[in-house]
Design a protein that fits this description.
heterodimer; A: six-stranded mixed beta sheet; four-stranded antiparallel beta sheet; 23% strand; B: mainly alpha; 9 helices
């Protein structure tokens, strides 16, 4: 159902706001391969939102270039450029005078889709983001915060853009709703395979969500750009190490499940606490601590024992 | 001279508090025409005032700082007593319908422009950012987002403009024999002001104001289904 994802390249992009000493962005170069979920993370003043808004030219840049599939964002008229890029913001910004269906249909309407096509697409999107078909007739004021952000996401995906920009989309949600939407966005990303640029100041969110993470420091300097695992294993400098936290080994364990651990099938005895192989290694370690046991029995979804998990297995996967 | 007394009943001749027979007798020759003229007076004033205020507000919406001077000018204009404004205009436009309408239009402008302007500015920054980010042109943002969101404020302005024009419109009778002010004016001029005529014309003005206000409330409900939810 999707148009191909787009490759996004920042090529030595700089930006300085008038009247401010520090640069907002200092020669940022970043290559985001098509289909990648890239998280921009960093402290405030790191220029992550600035970088994001340069892609759809809500903020102009002074130097360098930004290219989508090799084409400079400056080559298209702004309105046309923006219609081809999904955009989700923290405050969502749903149009209060339009129903959910009308909100989702804004960009299709701008692109001249006929009603039938827009309606079909709206139906698909409501399914995709986990809303009921009846919700199309409701107004934003009738929805909860989580539902509104689902609509915001559906609206951004409406015209099937190859690139999706998300500016702290879950920042205003309660932790439970946020975790649920994070998980659903991950699932959705696997389904629709778009390039996503996702801004957050929350390092946990960055590690959970990103295929790749770009850490920006004060003054808009790129501190490190890599996979979450590589950043946790080898922080580029003290700033990154401090930013990602001293529990980075545990965070890395959270990125792995017991299915990633080479288990010894011969050691699978029936005795001991049983866990499924989809459990993260971090949670397995936590269970060991909690139960004061020396091993866990790992089983598959059908309940067949696959092997045992011991303390040293945790260090082996790092 | 005692006008409109006709062949009056005892009630009329004695100028009792309220004489229903007089109302029935003079409905067609005095009251209904006055009411129709008043509606006309109001519709023209609010219609022209709205057209000017709306155009002005839409044109100046993007110009920063324009609303302030207009606001000050409006406030000053509104402080001029209506009777004085009529007199100020007479040297230019004479004792005509135009004079009356110019004054009334001026007052509606004073009410409508700030309301429409405030309405157009009522879209929240995040809604505007989302609109721009999705690829709406400035013109599309204005017509598809800011204008619909301004409707509640615009209707609120219209309600005040209509009601106050109906009220101020009665003063037009000092200049011209038009509207619901005229029967009141005539009755007041007699040595013993005829109460029934004053009360009836006054009540009709109040009734007209209430009906118009009610219609505008209904209009708001139809145009703004989204503000009634939740």
């Amino acid at each position: 159902m999707t148009a191909a994802a787009a490759e996004l390249v920042f090529d030595r992009v700089s930006k300085r706001y008038a009247g401010r000493e520090a640069a907002a962005l200092s020669s940022l170069s970043l290559e985001i391969p098509a289909g990648t979920f890239c998280v921009l993370v960093g402290p405030s003043g790191g220029g992550k939102t600035t970088a994001l808004k340069m892609v759809n030219r809500l903020i102009p840049f002074d130097e360098g270039d930004i290219r989508i599939d090799g084409r400079s964002v400056r080559d298209l008229p702004t309105a046309e450029l923006r219609r081809g890029i999904g955009y989700v913001i923290q405050q969502i910004g749903l149009f209060p005078h339009m129903t959910v269906g009308e909100n989702i249909g804004v960009v299709p309407k701008l692109l001249g889709w006929d009603r039938a096509r827009t309606r079909t697409r709206t139906g698909e999107l409501l399914d995709l983001v986990g809303l009921a078909q009846d919700d199309a007739q409701r107004y934003p004021a009738q929805l909860s915060g989580g539902q509104r952000q689902r609509v915001g996401l559906a609206r951004a995906l409406a015209a099937d853009p190859p690139l999706l920009l998300m500016d702290e989309p879950f920042g205003a949600l309660d932790p439970i709703t946020r975790a649920r939407l994070q998980a659903e966005l991950r699932r959705l990303h696997h389904e629709v395979e778009k390039t996503v640029v996702f801004v957050t100041h929350d390092v946990d969110e960055a590690i959970t969500m990103g295929d790749r993470i770009a850490i920006l420091r004060e003054g808009g300097v790129l501190a490190q750009y890599d996979t979450p695992d590589a950043i946790l294993a080898h922080p580029a400098d003290d700033f990154v190490a401090q930013f990602i936290g001293e529990d980075r080994a545990l965070r890395r364990l959270a990125l792995r499940t017991l299915a990633d651990v080479p288990l010894d099938p011969a050691a699978a005895t029936g005795a001991g606490l049983r866990v499924t192989s989809s459990t993260t290694v971090r949670n397995a370690v936590s269970l060991l601590l909690e139960s004061d046991a020396d091993h866990l029995v790992v089983e598959n979804a059908d309940g067949d024992a696959l092997g045992t998990f011991r303390w040293h297995d945790a260090t082996d996967v790092l | 001279m005692i006008p409109n007394f006709g062949h009056g009943s005892a009630c009329v001749r004695g100028d009792h508090t309220f004489c229903w027979d007089w109302v029935q007798q003079h409905w067609h020759d005095t009251l209904l025409p006055a009411l129709v003229q008043h509606v006309e007076l109001t519709l023209i004033a609010v219609g022209i005032g709205f057209a000017i205020a709306f155009t002005l507000a839409m044109l100046t919406h993007r110009i920063r700082g324009f609303d302030k001077p207009v606001g000050v000018f409006s406030a000053l204009l509104y402080t001029i007593p209506s009777l004085a404004l009529f007199q100020l205009l007479v040297p230019f436009t004479g004792i005509t319908y135009t004079t009356v309408e110019i004054a009334l239009v001026a007052y509606t402008l004073v009410i409508l422009y700030p309301n429409i302007d405030a309405g157009l500015n009522s879209a929240s920054p995040e809604v505007l950012e989302a609109a721009r980010g999705m690829g709406l042109t400035p013109r599309q943002v204005l017509w598809r987002v800011e204008l619909p969101l301004a409707v509640p404020a615009i209707v609120a302005g219209l309600r005040i403009a209509v009601v106050s024009t109906i009220s101020i419109g009665t003063i037009a009778a000092f200049l011209l024999p038009k509207g619901l002010g005229y029967p009141i004016f005539i009755a007041l001029q007699s040595p013993t002001p005829f109460k029934t005529e004053i009360y009836t014309a006054g009540a009709l003005a109040i009734g007209l104001a209430l009906v118009c206000d009610g219609l505008l409330v209904l209009l708001r409900r139809t145009l703004v289904p989204w503000s009634r939810v939740a």
